[in-house]
Structures are given as structure tokens and as C-alpha cells.
Design goal:
Blueprint: H1 11-25, H2 27-49, H3 55-78
Helix pairs in contact: 1-2
Amino acid sequence: MLAVGIGPIGPFEGLIILAIVVLIFGVGKIGDVGGALGKSVREFRKAAREPDEPEELVSASSAEESDSTAKAPSDSKSS
């Protein structure tokens, strides 16, 4: 018995796969899917480049939270 491995997809196989996809989905639908995929990739790259919040705002908000939690027990005891 001869073991046959599956190698990389060549140009001819790629064209056959593309033709089958076009037959199933149609040309217009493939354009919509390609546009949505491109938009998703752009948004992902943009989100990966930009930090969520600058570090100054994060440290300031965590300092405010620690101050408010420290004040809360003393306020409840004086009531």
C-alpha cells in the first residue's frame, strides 16, 4: 500500500475551490463577505495599536477608588 500525503494547495486546486465557492455563494455575496472580513481586520489592527486608557487615567481612577473605600467605613461608623 502506498501512503499518499496531502500537500499544499497549488494554483489549479485553488481555482477549483474558488469556482465551487462562487457557484455556491454567487459573486455579490463573496464581495460582501470580503468587505466584512477586511473591515474586521482593520478594526482588530486599530484596537491592537491603541491602548484602552492612558496609564495616567488608570492610576488616577484606582487612587480615587482606594480613597473612597477608605472613607466609606469611617462614614458608616460615625452615623
